[in-house]
């Protein structure tokens, strides 16, 4: 009979993990806080606090369910401070003869663990069953397809799962209701406040620990509000369904200067950590449509994100790594703009996206894609610089989902695998979808001159610079035709304006050192 040490990672906090099934007598379940995971990129302090607090709460749940649990705290004197070393140290301590672990969410750990499958103390890697699709199933679907597009994958997923299907046909007669989902948010429309979770002693202790050990990282801790238990995650899900889902669709692409969350679910951290399963979330959302409480455009829009995009990016990640991470189709080389760490920029939209990121470890999808992402794309920021930033700063960040979104969707660095064209846009788009421009010193209607919105000249100069790679793309034909129709003088003026802006753009020192210190104050009163 094997005597395993089951290593549960900080984003594997589900009782349904394959490694917890039918544990032989003497199994030890280990959760290990280690410095290496907190520093391989400078994670936002809220992200670290979320993971450590959720791990500590989950360890208690495991003990309550009768598991024998070892919890390595970050400041345990014997802690080996890397996941592999600490698991092997504990296996020795408890006389275990193998280490069991479910596929981690990042290639670097997968590789390190696979390298130990034949070691004297063997590691057994198991599949992560929390997703609708395994990497093997994704590979079978993608096989032989020249362009494995998300939309085709998504339809297949709908057929496979039966979600939003009626008699073999998509509910409402269409697969996709995106055309209904692009409305700006009227100024008069109020947005419900997110739920406030009770901060217990465990979370308070973790917040203090994080402030002490990771206080130099970018990001504040004061507004920490993430759900750290399944119970709290279920409160978030209920809140989303009751207060936000009906408007999720129509305002999905909207941005508001003063509000970070709008009608977004904020469920990604709970989903990625394992506190909620994607299946239960999709089924709960589908029920709202079936029972007439939410419109189809919202329900389909949400299910497409979770059943479609989320699974699709994971499939791409696991079937394309490690080469995927080295892709740089536009051959860009600029370092990360310093403003990504300091927020110090006159571009109001960029400033607000970075401030929200700093204060909440969150920015919604359109801010990530069309503000910070679009800006980095137009400035030719190198994939590795931008990917490290996104991986560090969001509470939901994990490489399997961050990398395809950043390298593929934002930077088009995978040559068009994730998206058939780059999501580049001028200031006009930001003006249409947000109220930022009203608070900005730049004018989105001007392309050159001292008051012109920098997104405008950057946009045209980007298209001109990358014409060799992009002008043949059928989806970019119209825009390149507009560029060609411009007079030479106008093109030259746009190019000069963009070049002057880029020449003034500072690159960040390594990881924004000294940019910000995350403080932590005594606990405030919170409502349950
Ligand atoms: P909602 O808008 O409420 O969407 C519902 C759910 O759909 C999300 O919780 C998420 O699970 C899923 N989802 C939506 N869009 C995507 C997408 N493009 N890819 C995968 N899942 C999606 N998401 C992460 O979970 N982790 C990341 O590290 C991450 N990095 C990103 C980096 C960039 C550059 C971009 C453009 C997007 C990234 N996303 C990432 C996807 C998306 O922005 C977040 O999932 C979303 O903003 C989370 O907020 P929410 O839960 O309120 O989402
Ligand atoms: C992100 C993170 C952090 C900050 N700390 C820990 C930790 O101390 N222990 C742990 O098991 N996991 C942590 N994580 C999450 C891991 O980085 C994550 O499991 C891998 O990146 C794979 O997804």
TrEMBL record:
The species this protein was found in: Halomonas gemina
PANTHER family: SLR1343 PROTEIN
Annotated Pfam families: DPRP
Official protein name in the record: Cryptochrome/photolyase family protein
Region called Disordered, residue ranges: 167-198
